[in-house]
Design a protein that fits this description.
The protein is an all-alpha fold and 134 residues long. The chain has one domain. It is built from three helices and no strands. The protein is rod-shaped and about 105 Å long.
Length: 134
Amino acid sequence: MALADQNLTSLAGKVVHDSEKLLGQHVDLFEAEFGQEVHRLGDSAFAMVLGVSLATGGIILTGLMLANLLQWLTDWPLWICYGLVGGACVAGGVALVHLGRRGMAQVRLLPQQTVQAIKENLSWLKQQIKGPAA
């Protein structure tokens, strides 16, 4: 009987050791996935900031030049030319912001692979503790 108790104790120790090792691997996987998501979030935020900056810069600098050129070519009132050129710059900026926003929508801060792996391992661990079903 002592040999059976020793084998059971040894088996329980191995299960605990393997569970600790598995948990450590899940933590490493979580950190890696979280890092990837943060990187994607940063890239998307950068695209949005760049889009807003370009739209603003385009309105201020290029808009002045193009509005005056349009007025010279068409002889329309200057305010109409400024409005048309400004609207085109804003549309370009909005398109860039939309691109960044779409990228942010794809960011998942909760790593799906890690969550699924933890669920599977917990299920396996429960089966090991309960033993084979009758």
